[in-house]
Structure formats: C-alpha cells, structure tokens
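Thread: S-adenosylmethionine complex, take 2
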Amino acid sequence: MSRKMKNKVVTNLTIERIATEGKCVGHHEGKVVFVQGVAPGDVVDVRITRGKSSFMEGEAIKFHEYSKDRIDPFCSHFGTCGGCKWQHINYDLQKTYKRQQVVDQFTRIGKVEIPEVMPIVGSANTRYYRNKLDFTFSNNRWLTREEIDSGAAFERNALGFHIPKMFDKIVDIEHCYLQGDISNEVRNELRAFALSNSLSFYDIRNQVGLLRNLIIRTTSTGESMVIVQFGGDNAEEIELVMNFLHEKFPQITALLYIINLKKNETFNDLEVVTFAGRSYIEEEMEGLKFRIGPKSFYQTNSEQAYELYKVTRDFAGMKGDEVVYDLYTGTGTIANFVAKQAKQVIGIEYVEAAIEDAKLNSKVNGLENTLFYAGDMKDMLNDDFIAAHAKPDVIITDPPRAGMHDDVVNMLLKLAAPKIVYVSCNPATQARDVALLSEKYSVDKIQPVDMFPQTYHVENVVLLTLKS
Ligand SMILES: C[S@@+](CC[C@H](N)C(=O)[O-])C[C@H]1O[C@@H](n2cnc3c(N)ncnc32)[C@H](O)[C@@H]1O
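Output below.
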C-alpha cells in the first residue's frame, strides 16, 4: 500500500450494506471501502489500513451518526474478544443479512439459476447456544488502553479467549454468553483456585507453565465434559487441580486431563486421561444416542444441529429403499440420523477416530445398515470404491469451509446420483462447487440455517436434482 494511502482518513463515510465475513461496505471516490464493527446506516470516519486499486479496508475511528438498527451489545467483552462480532445488530436483521449473504454468493459467485432462497431457520436461543468452548490460560493478559494509561500494576494471568490476530494475548473472561450450564462457574472457580495456589499460567512465548488450556463440553441431556490441558508434568500440581475440580463440581460426568508438552495445543496424537467419571459424554436426538469423545467433532449448537439435520433429511426425501452416501461424515451423525429411512448409508471421512465413533454410534443405536470408511475423500471416492459398493440414489455432502476438491466434484458428476444434498458452513465455496455441478444438476431448494447467532456465520443446505 502506498504511504499516501496508509493512515489516510476517509471522512463521513455512509455504511451501505453488509458484505462477506461480517464486514460492512461504503463507497469513496468510486472505490469500495470495507469496515469492521459498524452497521448499515452508520456514518463514520475511517482510517485506511489496507488499500488496493479497486478497494480499501479500514477501521472506524469516529461515529457521526449511528444506524437506527443498532442495539446495545449485552456482553462486557464485546469489541475486545472478537467472539460475537454482531451483538450490536438486532437478531431479526442478523437473520436478514445472513440470508442475503447466501443470495449474494449464489448470484455473484455461483452465477447459476436459483429458486427463491427460503427464509433462514433462526435459532430459538440466541445466547448460551454453544455446547463447546475452549479457553486458554496465559501469563499475558490483554490490558485495555485505560489500564495501560493508568500506570497501575495489574494481575497479568488470564483465562479466556485469544484477541483476534494476536496469538499471545488473552482476554480474561468474566462471563461468556455463548455457553450455559456450569461453563462460567468452572472457568472462574478454576482461575481463582490457580491464582490463590500460585500455579503457573502458560507462557506461550517461552513454552512453559502448568495450566495451558480448558475445554468445556455440555449436552442437552445435562452431561458435561471438562478437559484440562497441562503444559507441565508436575504430578502433585496436576492432582491438586483435578481434585479441586472433582470436589467442587461433582456433577461433571467426564473429568479428563492431557499433559501436552508440545509446541501447539492440538491433542489428537496425545493420551487423554480420565480422572473421574466416564471418558465420553452422550448427546441425544430423536431417541438416538451420539457418543462424543474428547477428540470427536460434534456440531457446536446442538438444537440447531437438529434443525439442520431435519432440513437435510427432508431435502433427501427418502422412501426407505435408497442407498445414501454421506460424504465428510465426521462421527457419522447425519448418516446415523437418516439411516432408518434408507436401505444403506455409506459414510466417508478422513479422521480415523471419528470413523470409529461413527461405527460405535451405529452400534449403540442398533443400526445395521451403515458402513463407514476413513480416508481422504478425493482418494476414497474413486472407480474402485464405486464398483465395490452400490451406486448412490442420494448423496449428502458436508465438506469443511474450503468446499470440495475438484476431483470430488468431478466424481459426483460422473456418479450422477438423482439427488445431492449439499450442506455447507461457507456459502461462497458452496456456490463455487454448485456452479461446477450445474453442468448436470439444477438447484431446487436453498435453505439457510442459523447455527451461530451474534456472528456473521451462516450454514446453508442446497438440494440439487439431476437434470433429465
Ligand atoms: C463440516 S464437518 C461435517 C461433519 C458432519 N457432517 C456433522 O454434521 O457432524 C466436515 C468434516 O469433513 C472432514 N474432512 C475434511 N477434509 C476432508 C477430506 N479431504 N476427506 C475426508 N474428510 C474430510 C472433517 O474431518 C470433518 O469431520
């Protein structure tokens, strides 16, 4: 960016609409200006942080007018923590913007003929809707400008969330509105206990410290899993922490810990020790049980996951004699959810532990018509695989944010199943893939589902039907 452009201030910019990834846009001298943390209708001065020939990005430094659609954010950490970027926009408008994002992606990127996008399925709970949160211990608490300017000495240990784009700074969380049940209590009590016992909080720059990370998972049936990751292996101190949690919170049904002396926080390759209770928790949906281990993926908003799966099953429209492929099956939740309406369901996923859980979930629920395979989709879904299995009547696909690999899209075109139900957490890559599939498929239904209130994220389900 030219020096002239950097730090340039655009004054009195009217924010016109929401664009992708929660950013808003206005126009200045023929260029689009992207701004975070504002709402359509705001009039602001913007300091430019990035400039290209066709667009600029910046931060609002002064508000001249506030949008009439603004509401007061309810969380004291709003603006710092970065977790719920849309708390200043009322929920009805959040839903409108999310649906509009889907329309925009399909018309701008997809450029395919689409039916009217259905009204978004809103979340009954707009607070305390997550079943999993991940907190980080740090000896480098984020200090506010006022705290720094005061010159006073502050407690620097913290337990909370990363400041966006700063790997070593943590906002100390007092109350988080994302997860209910015992979440806030466990976090705050554990922090207080650690401080009063002078236990060390992790120093990420020097890779030392006892307390590293805290994961809390809950279920709609009242079960809870608490996992403490330790960055040191002092057995006495570990015992002290785990005993404290066990005595203070006897209602925790799976109390686990991990000793992680590696450089990163991932623990797929580490042993998880069960300190008290069981090694897993169990979620329920329509009487089906889903076992969730410490390493298993499970949709983080359980109630909306149910809505999402109902839409998926409805779009698949099975009568009972269909062969269904569930691509990117994770722990086989969708596969098991639709199994009673199908002749056979085949799930594919590359995390082996997830496939083990998927098989276990079929067994626990007495489902005998499912098959699960572990491997990379582009390598698994090949001619040999198809020759060895029945051809699909319905394909359900739920890839990660990056969407499907070209080879997978080409295989779907070759397979030419009568129906594809495409579930996605990223309508941009979904629209790209649907454009490729439109060579043989028409888009029949588009149903956005809101899994993450107070954020710009939107989940979207598309029904594709083979053209005759
Ligand atoms: C959005 S999740 C879908 C999970 C599942 N459908 C559910 O609702 O619980 C995407 C899944 O794709 C898996 N995955 C990502 N890349 C993959 C690949 N190249 N091959 C196979 N699976 C992959 C991830 O491990 C993850 O479980």
